[in-house]
Each structure stands twice: as C-alpha cells, then as structure tokens.
Write a structure and sequence with these properties.
Layout: H1 2-9, H2 14-22, H3 29-69
C-alpha cells in the first residue's frame, strides 16, 4: 500500500502502478524502465512549467513590493 500511495504522489496513475507492480518480478526490467522514462519526461515538463510560473509570480510580487515602497 505504501508503494501505491508513494507512486500516486509522484504522478503515476493507478493503471501505471498496476503495470509497475506486474513488472516487479525483475524479468521485465526494460518495460519498467520505459514506463519510468516516460513518467520522468512528464515530471521534467511539469517542473519546467512550474519554474516558469514561479518566476512570473515572483516578478509580480516583487513589482507589487516595489510599487508599495514608492507610495
């Protein structure tokens, strides 16, 4: 159960978790690695999006504070 919850927090769907659990025997390592690679690409894309959003929000807050300081 801990594995399932941890995998969900990492963004894996229940179907993907089921696939990973089915591959857990080690005989299908390349399939498990391919699924992990796909998820890694998704995570990296989300991180890039979040980084852009963080930068935009930071500029907005900085601009607000600069404007407040001029009044």
């Amino acid at each position: 159960m801990k594995f399932v919850k941890a995998a969900q927090r990492l963004g894996f769907s229940l179907d993907e978790i089921g696939q990973l659990l089915a591959l857990e025997d080690g005989a299908h390592f390349s399939e498990a690695a391919e699924l992990a690679l796909q998820r890694l690409d998704d995570v990296r894309a989300r991180l890039a999006d979040l980084t852009r959003i963080e930068a935009a929000l930071s500029r907005l807050v900085d601009g607000y504070h600069a404007h407040q300081g001029t009044m």
